Amino acid sequence: MRSIGWWSCLGVLLWGAFAFMPGCGAQQKKAENKPEVAEKEGSSSTIAYRKMEPGEEEKGDALDETAPPSNAKTERKTRSRVVPAVVPDTKPAHPKSHRRKSVKKEVKQAAAKSRVHEDAAPKAPETTAAPSGQDIGSTEPALLAPSASEAKPMAAKPSVDEEPAADEEPEADEEPAAEAPAPAMPKMAAPSESATPSTGTFTPTSDGQYTVVRVFYGTDRAAVDPAFVKNPLYYQWLLYTLSSAGGTLVLASLAFYFWPRRLLKILAGLGITATLLLGVLTGYVATQGKMPGAVATEKSAEAAAYGPDRGRLELGTCEVSIPKEHEVGELESPSVLRLEFREDPEKHVVLLGVTRQPAEEFFKQIQTCVGQSAQKAAFVFVHGYNVSFEDAARRTAQMAYDLKFDGAPVFYSWPSQASMLGYTVDETNVEWSVPHLKQFLTDLAAQSGAKQIHLVAHSMGNRALTSALKELASLPESDRPKFNEVLLTAPDVDADTFKERIAPALAQTARRITLYASSNDEALAASKKVHGYPRAGESGENMVIVPGIETVDVSAVDTSLLGHCYYGDNRSVLADIFEVLHDAKPPSQRTWLEEAKRGLDRYWIFHR
Fold first, then answer.
1. Where would I find the H helices in 483-548?
2. Which of 453, 488, 492, 511 is nearest to 216 (CA)?
3. Which residues neighbour 602 within 8 Å (Cβ) at sequence distance 6 or greater?
4. Which residues contact 236 (CB under 8 A, 6 or more apart)?
């Protein structure tokens, strides 16, 4: 019995504690019977909430009235249904001011909405006509993003008698209209969003996993045996192996000098292990060679490959894969960090094969390609320093695919060493290639059947192109080929030589010349240190501005590491080139460009 008494007392205590817990028992009943008028603490006024009369029309979102609120959460939901009234109050501010501000804002919005429903007369919805020249069902151009300056629909203004309360904050759309923002920089859309020209240049595979792009080439490189062409990843793995070996040698030397230091000996041991592992992987990659598709193409009698040495002028075609998931401006390649040991056409831009052709067959195929295009056009790309034949072919195919070029894509490859340490050799070879490039351009203009031939050069390749055009300018006008658009991107040419000797001759060989320059080009900054004088591809105080050449400063758009390859991997610059090659728009009609002046000279810059 004693134990039952103790358990009874314990039960009474627990029941009492439960009855007086917050939200339970008596406290809950007290919350349900709260008065009609509740004072809101911490504000300069008290908000009185009254219940709605039976016939009164609700002004907000209707809530379920089948049951009265049973807890604080349900009470908060019903606040949108009450009619607010403001009563002066002098109570001090409550520390939880953030909740007070939120409730006050809700009450103000409900009051304003009530006045609009009660005072404003119902009006028929007005129909706003579409802006002039705009088709409601039309879509934006596939290659450029919509301009940021497009007008927004005007919000309906309140009637005269609807004056806002004195303490009511204006709505966002009631603020005075600000100045129209500058037009947005152009952006290239994904390749799949625009139609592919039907010239036979782009051929999707049967499974649709990648597209084969056919490009034409001219080169004065020495031919090599295709069987000895190394896997491009071999050089990457070799570089990692040599770097690991060098670091390991340093650590081993320090460990030997500071023999008691155990940590150095551990690091040296790890470095030796990493070097051995990278060496094995490098040897494995070296045995892989090219992809099976490329090897099969190279079995033909006319298969070719080209190295860094000088040779004779040869012509031919290349087949390059563009993967289905290609990004505009990207030159997808295998990555050592992703442990990719071979090129895959479904993932990377791969040179599948090179076919050498005699001149007669070469120009016959170009004529066919040009004849199938709407503009009867071709463009020639001349690469820069530290570029192999394979990389030149891949870049040309990527540019033609991203620009959706309707015509024949062509590139000229001079014998660059494709090495960071081969700068001086490249300087010698690019000058040696000038007469060969001159002959190639002359034959192309005479035998391609193209009505428009555009020329694009990059970096050191501008030396070969501008020198060839200068020599062509000395010919009689009847024998001089006339080119359409000439784009000089990041030219690694002496600025003074360009202004005084090259620029006057270029105007005689082209309809329009555009020079792209940047103040963020680290490669040209290094070239300036080597040569001691500014380069023509620099902007800022050394920018080249001469009559007959339209200079465009791209410093505002390039964000790459070296800022040197914006011509092919920057979407905004690609979009600008697209407008130049497709529609021949001058800078004044390319809305993302803004005119700037330096004294009496005029140039163009991208909007920041």
1. 495-497, 503-506, 522-531
2. 453
3. 545, 595, 596
4. 336
For the stretch 472-526, pLDDT in tens is 999 998 889 989 999 999 999 999 999 999 999 998 999 999 999 999 999 999 9
HSE-CB of 196 using CA atoms within 13 angstroms: 16
Q: How confident is the model at residue 463 (pLDDT cuts 50, 70, 90)?
A: very high
* C-alpha closest to that of 491 among 552, 441, 401, 574: 552
**Alpha carbons within 13 A on the beta-carbon side of 348:** 18
Q: How many CB atoms lie within 10 A of CB 538?
A: 22
- Whether the Cβ atoms of residue 488 and residue 513 lie closer than 8 Å to each other: yes
Q: How far apart are CA 208 and CA 215, in angstroms?
A: 20
Residue 558 to residues 183, 375, 590, Cα–Cα distance (Å): 18, 30, 18
Q: Which two tokens stand for residue 34?
A: 């709260």
Among residues 5, 70, 7, the alpha carbon closest in space to that of 15 is found at 7
> How far apart are the C-alpha atoms of 298 and 301, rounded to whole Å?
8
Nearest Cα to Cα of residue 469 among 510, 432, 499, 416: 510
CB 476 within 8 A of CB 446: no
Helix axes 434-447, 359-371, angle to 10 degrees: 50
Type and span of the H or E element at 377: strand 377-382
Confidence of residue 270 (pLDDT cuts 50, 70, 90): confident
pLDDT at residue number 90? 44
Question: Exposed, middle or buried: residue 15 (CB in 10 Å: 0-12, 13-18, 19+)?
Answer: exposed
Write down the number of H helices and E strands in the chain: 17, 14
Band the pLDDT of 185: cuts 50, 70, 90: low
Greatest mean pLDDT range, 38-42, 86-90, 361-365? 361-365
Per-residue pLDDT reduced to its tens digit, 75-126:
444 444 444 444 444 444 444 444 455 555 555 665 555 554 445 444 444 4
Amino acid (one-letter) located at 305: A
Tokens in use for 336? 């050592």
Distance CA 425, CA 388 (A): 14
Q: Give the three-class secondary structure for 41.
A: coil
Which residue's entry shows tokens 């782009």?
202
Q: How many CB atoms lie within 10 A of CB 173?
A: 10
218 forms beta bridges with 315, 412
Residue type, 78: T
Give the integer Cα–Cα distance in Å for 393 and 217. Answer: 8
Instruction: Calculate ∠ Cα 170-174-178, nearest 5°.
Output: 120
**Residue bearing tokens 């001011």:** 97
**Which amino acid is it at 392?**
A
